[in-house]
Amino acid sequence: MRPSVTAAACLVVAFASSAVGQTPTISFPDAVRRALEVQPAVVQAEGTQRNASAAQRTAVGSFLPSLTVGGAAVDKSANQFNAGTGQIIPGQAGTTFSGSLGLNLDLFAGFRRTATLNAASATTRAAEAGLVNQRYQVTATTAQLYYTALADEELVRVAQSQVDRSKLSLQVAVNRFQAGAATRADTLSAIVDYGNSELSLLQAQATLASGQANLGRQVGLDTPVRALPDSVLPILPDTTHLRQEAMDSSPQVRQAVAQAQAAQSQIAVNRSQYWPTFSAGYSNGYAAAGGDVFSPNIPYVGNWSFRLSLNWTLFDGFTREQAMVSASVQRDIAEANSQDMRRQLNAQFTQQLAALFTGYTQIAISGTNVDAANEGLRVQQERYRVGAATQLDVLTAEANLTQAEVNQVQARYNYLVARAQLEALVGHAL
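RESULT FIELD:
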């Protein structure tokens, strides 16, 4: 069984080594840029913003008059058929030309246009804030996948170091057993530990492959992508006024507030139905009969009209009342969501800020733990060499060192992920 496991481990290690050389690498700025270009959530948010901008332009256009033009040319034969008598009536062949121009303007629409414009403007602000929010959410997700891939790659190196230490311990145990200074139990324990370390390496490599595949999907590639390591660790940001800044300018809060304002404006839009509408219209048309529409000798006959109209719906079966109730309900829901969003943001900010400081503190502590674990392993190996410690003591020291190295990797990237999540809440880079 053990030779099979060893052979499989060697094959996976060889495959992973070749895959690392073939896998394309990407830097964090490039990963974010590509993710913002291909992620459906960002594309949808951009489409929502475009739709909102078009609706706002339409609301502005409602204050302008509508203009229509028309024209026609009719060419008729000399003889006409009378369907009533079934006879052919002789006549004169000719061409008739006509043209028209129409102008219509709503002079008063019960303040509907102003309310619609206010609602459209608030919807546009909500869409813009939603786009900013979505971009930062995608950036935070990309950062998490990017740092996870980096952490997985470092964990593979930790697992490989664990295999190397286990292999060395196994060799020491075998040598001592052959020299009569150790028992067979020590050798068997070292063999089991070496096999477990090989399995841990296989699991770490599988996790790395999955993480790189997820990163590739995030940036719009069909192949796994290797994250480019960055040795520069950003320092802690100044968080003195960061909470108030997040409460005032967070894209999530601005989006919720704008949605509440749009819902409030929608009530005014529905209230306009209780008012009368007053509009004016002007039309002018020309018609002529002749052979050439551009001939100066054709007499054109003009006819024009000017229209003023007043419409007032006095009763429509409580349809307006139902619309007002529905708009009020939507307004109440939007305002409740806006207030809850501020509370939610405050709670998330507290959580991410604590994670940020905790992760930064753990980086230094984990480094010290690694140094201590290294020294502990060295002491136990020396004690085991002189017979003052058991093989179990050495294996325990090796496990402690491996866990300390894992904690060091996780602490670094937990800090970076918490920083990215905090940037997504605030709406700008820290």
